[in-house]
Design goal:
Elements (H helix, E strand, L loop, with lengths): L1 H21 L2 E7 L7 E9 L2 H19 L5 H4 L3 H18 L8 E11 L3 E11 L6 E10 L15 H16 L17 E4 L3 E6 L12 E6 L11
Parallel strand pairs: 2-3
Antiparallel strand pairs: 1-2, 3-4, 4-5, 6-7, 7-8
Length: about 240
Amino acid sequence: MQRSIVLLSLIFLIFSCEDEETKITFSEKNFTTNQNKIVEINIPQAEGIEAVKNNINTSIEAMVSASLNLDEDSVAKSMSVSESIDKFNSEYASFKSEFPESALEWEAQIDGEIMYQSEAVISVVITNYLNTGGAHGSLVVSFLNFDALTGQLLKNEQLFNDMNAFKTVAEDYFNDQIADKKELYFEPDNFVLPQNIGFNDTGVILLYNSYEVAPYSTGLTEFTIPFDDLVPYLNFM
């Protein structure tokens, strides 16, 4: 009897260790360079299975790098995060050289966190604030969804088995969200899904950045649809 208990304990321990080895975990990573004075970056870094973590980290870092690049040429798109940090600093130095009398200061703050993680999907949010001397800074929030088994970045269309049905449910929630402030929106009766669709602990979250459906003064528009209302249409949970 005692031998059986010991054997069962060993089996449980082996499977527990295997589960820990295969699960993707995250730590926080800070990026900077010797030249850097105006950029602060703190984002999740995946750890675990080599191929899976590499896929996730590559996509997150590509998003961060793109956020710092003020132009969209092919060279800028291929830059690493460190290269993009130095490029942003260099562009600011050029601006100050061209307009030495200007009191405007540049800054970039990029933060990321895990919104949701299950055995099937991982949702990451990247918050990007850039101020390059305009009337106000630019705040952009981006969601990244990953297949938890492969680390592959998922398109919004891959999250659902029936996009039209999902859109119908989302439109009802959107209308409830803006019911008392429809006059603040560009075309409140012409519903479109946002670019940012992700997951949190209670359901599917939808977020519109400034200028997507309303002016800057309206701010972000964000709401969550509970999982219970979407179970038939979800490919991942």
